[in-house]
Design a protein that fits this description.
By secondary structure, this protein is mainly alpha-helical. Helices cover 44% and strands 5% of the residues. Pfam families: Pyr_excise (PF03013).
Length: 149
């Protein structure tokens, strides 16, 4: 599961659809609807908010907005009916840099033309996040682990 801090507009088609699917799974986990993935480290920052399901709804809305901008129709009815307001979640500069490098490596294989367009660009983050100083998040797993996929 990869819940990108990066703005979903930076993702390629495969990344955007995977982000939607994985965020829906995360929503299900946070709602107590599955036994799997309950200890997944990517969920730490959502659980740390006052309203984890509202935070996930905002996260999913951001992905759906990026999809709509490309002409895709993600089914927003799958987002739980919770308030769509949430506190900003801090994401460190180091985490953003880690995710940016991870995304660029994926794009080099999957979508080289997009990688070329993004080369030299500054990464932006999903509207749910606020960039703060710091290194890679403690919940992030090292490259090559199942979470880093």
């Amino acid at each position: 599961m990869r819940l990108w801090s990066l703005d979903p507009s930076l993702l390629d088609r495969q990344g955007l659809t995977a982000a939607w699917r994985e965020a829906l799974l995360a929503q299900k986990v946070l709602a107590g609807g599955t036994r799997g993935y309950v200890h997944h480290p990517q969920l730490v920052r959502f659980r740390a908010t006052a309203a984890p399901l509202s935070s996930m709804a905002v996260f999913l809305d951001g992905i759906a907005d990026a999809a709509a901008a490309r002409g895709y129709a993600f089914d927003r009815s799958r987002i739980l009916d919770v308030p769509r307001t949430a506190e900003l979640i801090d994401v460190s500069e180091g985490q953003v840099a880690f995710e940016w490098a991870h995304l660029m490596a994926k794009l080099a294989v999957r979508s080289p033309e997009l990688r070329v367009r993004l080369t030299g660009a500054q990464p932006t983050v999903h509207r749910l996040f606020r960039v703060v100083r710091g290194g890679v998040a403690g919940w992030e797993r090292a490259a090559g682990s199942p979470t880093a996929r």
